Every structure is written in structure tokens, then in C-alpha cells.
Amino acid sequence: MSNASTLVWFRQDLRLADNPALDAALASEHIIPIYIVPPEGSDEGRDGFLRGGASRWWLHHSLTALDRDLRARGSRLIVRRGEPTEVLAQLAAESDATAVHWNRRLEPAGIATDRAVKQSLREQGLPVQSFAGNYLHEPWNVLNKQGAPYKVFTPYWKALLAEGIDLPVLPDPEPLPAVDEAIAGESIDSLGLLPGLDWADGFADWWAPGEAGAWDRFESFLDDVSRYHETRNRLDLDGTSRLSPHLHFGEISPRQVVARVRSEYPDALDDKGTEHFLREVGWREFGANLLYHFPQTETDNLDARFDHLPWRNDPDHIVAWQRGQTGIPVIDAAMRALWATGWMHNRARMIVASFLTKNCLVDWRIGADWFMDTLVDADLPSNTAGWQWVAGTGADAAPYFRIFNPVLQGEKFDPDGAFIRRWVPELAELPDKALFAPWEAKPDTLARAGVSLGETYPEPIVDLKTSRERALEAFQRIKDYE
Ligand code: FAD
């Protein structure tokens, strides 16, 4: 062990095990774990990191958990505010650090920060080293035979499998060297990350941010993973892992996820449930691949024909959608669940995004922004890819003319109506037949269930049939643009 001191800059990798930046620092005598809260509007703070209220709630608790885990190993987390270059240079000077380590971020703004910090610290004579920590493979390593990026998922997934998804996992470091008492930081509470209103108070009933919380959730999901292909689309069941916020904040790594699945199910790629689950983890990689190679898609349609689409962006529709007051029960259930828990089921994300972009003709970027603010797993690559996929504007996208019918989707994926009844309690007494489209129910059916449309529950904000036709016409008008 050298008697050198290394700064380990935690970013989107809030874990101790399988953390390459930390692992490489174990050779030095002193390790100073640092988290930097960047100034509002800076590159490092963009990309869903400090952009959304739900993300900030998660970050507060995840940093608290990381500090607790570091203390349990004899270390502690130093938290400081400021531009990363300045904070790192200052801390290096205070601690006589001779190196800075971090795991790379791959979103456009994260890359910009990486480059700027690397260049500046190197110019100041401070060696820096960055590592691959958040994905199975970095996007520049998964290209087609022509050396071009993939735009279609299935060949991408095959290429990812060919690169290999069984990757070495680094151990949990224990113990860690103490951080000198003289090195000060701010308290996590003083960062003001928690929302001022009581909006997020209920999130704690659903989530346990941090490495231990990630593993608890993953282990309990593993008991059911072999049924994943059957249950993953059901809105009323707990059929998916809910690992997305833990993966986003790097509390668990995709390498660990694959390795743990494989240790339990060695033939995971041949079994329907486990294969499907691993493939979804592959979608996360695919999203990062798309945003890395096509960074303009953060704001621009990948399919430029959609630049001509006449979005309506009716403010009343946008507000009704955000508040779960559209009068379409499955949409309202999903949007209210998002508000209450900070998370939404993938099937529900597709249904509400299709309704907003197609039935309401609201620009996908407006929906994507709302998700970035309210999701605890707000993740720029996955969110951008998801919205562009549903809107039909992106890579490997659902064709524009495929418009989800929210009534049929509800009937299929919430067959007993439990999801709707839970989140839209004013409809709970309706019989199943009337629950998915109350506006078609007979007046006495509504009256018996205590439902009065326009009073206790809204009339639909759009007619599903005519709004579908309107969307198709809008697409007809743009489809011949180059
Ligand atoms: P599981 O089904 O258990 O899947 C395991 C993991 O695979 C997930 O945790 C996630 O990391 C990854 N994954 C699964 N499905 C997808 C997918 N379609 N695309 C990318 N990764 C996937 N995911 C986010 O993490 N953050 C977002 O901001 C986000 N926004 C989305 C917006 C829209 C409009 C859509 C359609 C999808 C979005 N997704 C997003 C993808 C997906 O909905 C979530 O990852 C998934 O619902 C998370 O639940 P889970 O952890 O139970 O997933």
C-alpha cells in the first residue's frame, strides 16, 4: 500500500461494492470519499440528477445511506457544494491527495463535466482516472460491423450478449481508512434536497434508497423472477423488480444484477422469465447507447419528420393528465400512482405516454419533463428513449399509427380492476364492466356506485375514437417529409 491519498468522487454510483473507482483507490493509504452538489444549472446537475423533485428526495436518502455504510467501515462521506473542478482541486490541496478517481457518467452533460474536470485537474498536475461503473458495456464498445451504433434493439442485444454480460464483480471493501478529522464537509440535511411540501412524504412507504435497500428489493424479487415473463405487464401485480431507481443512482450495478441472477439460475438466458428480465436490463443499456450516439435526441426527434407534427399542447389537457383527472380511469390511476409513489409501471408508462402524445397531441417533451420531475428513477437515457419510442419519433419506435386504447389496455392488464380501484377510489364501487369506461355505463349503474360524471369523477377530456383519428390524420400529413 502506498501512503498516497486518493479522492473518490461519488456521482451516479452510490455504492461501495463493485465500485471500480473505489476499488482502485484501495491501494492508497488514505481515501477521501466525496460527493459534490453542483451549482444550479451546471452541467453536472442536469440530466435528472438534481433536475427533478423526486430524484432529489431519493438523493438525500441515498447519500445518507452511503455515509452510514462508509461510517460502518471506518470512513465517512465528505459533502461539498460547488463546481466539481474547484471542489476537487481544493480538497486535493487540503488533503495532499495525489489522485482523483470516479466512475464515468454517460449522459451528454455528465460527459461534458468529465471532460472539463479531467482536463483542468490534469493541467493542475493532479492525476485523474475514470472508470466504467454504471453499465455492462460502454456505448463506444458495442457497434455493428460497419462501426456504426445500433438503432434497433434486437441486434443490439445480440451484440451485447456477444460482448459478454457475465462480468467480474468487485467485492465490498471492508474496512476503509478513516478520513482525517480536519477535513470538513456539509451535512446532508443542509443541502435542502427534500421537497418543501409534503408531496414526497409517502415515498418512504415504498422505497428504501441505498445499497442495502437495493439488495433487499432485488433478493425478494429473485424469488419470482422465473414468472417475470407472465407477470411483468400486469398493473395489479408486483411482477417487476422495481430496481430502476436503485440502478439509476448506482446503488446496485448491472454487473451485480446479472451475476446474481446467473448464480441462482445458471441457465438464465434459456429460461423465459430470467431471459426476459435480463433483456430488460439490456434495454437500459440500449437507452444509454442511443443517447450517447445521438445526444441531440435529448431534445430533438430522432425521426425529423415529426418536427412538422402539429402538436396541440392544450394546457387543460396537460394539467388533467398530470393530476390524474383525464376521466380515463387507467390513465388517472397511473398518474396518481406516480404522484404518490414516485414510480410507474412500464406498461402504465406506455399507456399514459401514448394517450398524451397521440390522443391529446401533446409534445412528448412535455410528458418527458413531467416524468423527469416526478419519477424517483428519472433517468435521461431511459426516459428519452421511452418517450420517443411511444411517440413514434425515436429509434426502433412503436409505429405512429399504433395507438394504445387505454380501455382495452386496462381490461387486459388490470383484469379485476384492482389497480384502478386502488388509485381512483371514487370509482371503486363500479362493477368491472363499467370500471374501464365509466362514460359508457348506464346512469343507474353509475348512481348505484355513487359516481356522477363531471362531479365526483371527470368526463373524459377527449373522445378516444375521434382523438385517435385526429392523431392518424396528423401523421398522414407528415409522413412524406424527408
Ligand atoms: P423491471 O421490469 O424489473 O426491469 C429491470 C430493469 O431493467 C429496470 O429496473 C430498468 O433499469 C431496466 N428496464 C426495464 N425496462 C426498461 C425499458 N423499457 N427501458 C430502459 N430500461 C428498462 N426507466 C427508467 O429507469 N427511468 C426513466 O426515467 C424511464 N422513463 C420511461 C418513460 C417511458 C415513457 C417509458 C415507456 C419507459 C421508461 N422507463 C424508464 C423504462 C421502464 O419503464 C422502467 O425502467 C421500468 O418500469 C422500471 O421498473 P422495474 O425496475 O420494475 O423494471
UniProtKB/TrEMBL annotation:
The record marks W311, W364, W387 as: Electron transfer via tryptophanyl radical. Its cofactor is (6R)-5,10-methylene-5,6,7,8-tetrahydrofolate; FAD. Belongs to the DNA photolyase class-1 family. Binds 1 FAD per subunit. Its EC number is 4.1.99.3. It catalyses: cyclobutadipyrimidine (in DNA) = 2 pyrimidine residues (in DNA). Residues 4-136 form the Photolyase/cryptochrome alpha/beta domain. Coiled coil: none annotated. It is an enzyme of class 4 (lyase). GO terms for molecular function: deoxyribodipyrimidine photo-lyase activity; DNA binding; FAD binding. Involved in repair of UV radiation-induced DNA damage. Catalyzes the light-dependent monomerization (300-600 nm) of cyclobutyl pyrimidine dimers (in cis-syn configuration), which are formed between adjacent bases on the same DNA strand upon exposure to ultraviolet radiation. It comes from the Bacteria. It comes from Guyparkeria halophila. Keywords: Chromophore, FAD, Flavoprotein, Lyase. PROSITE patterns: DNA_PHOTOLYASES_1_1, PHR_CRY_ALPHA_BETA. FAD binds at Y228, T240, S241, R242, L243, S244, F277, D377, A378, D379. The keyword Thylakoid does not apply. Gene3D superfamilies: 1.25.40.80, DNA Cyclobutane Dipyrimidine Photolyase, subunit A, domain 3, HUPs. This is Deoxyribodipyrimidine photo-lyase. InterPro entries: Crypto/Photolyase_FAD-like_sf, Crypto/Photolyase_N_sf, Cryptochr/Photolyase_FAD-bd, Cryptochrome/DNA_photolyase_1, DNA_photolyase_1_CS_C, DNA_photolyase_N, Rossmann-like_a/b/a_fold. GO terms for biological process: photoreactive repair; response to light stimulus. The lineage of its organism: Bacteria, Pseudomonadati, Pseudomonadota, Gammaproteobacteria, Chromatiales. It holds the Pfam family DNA_photolyase.
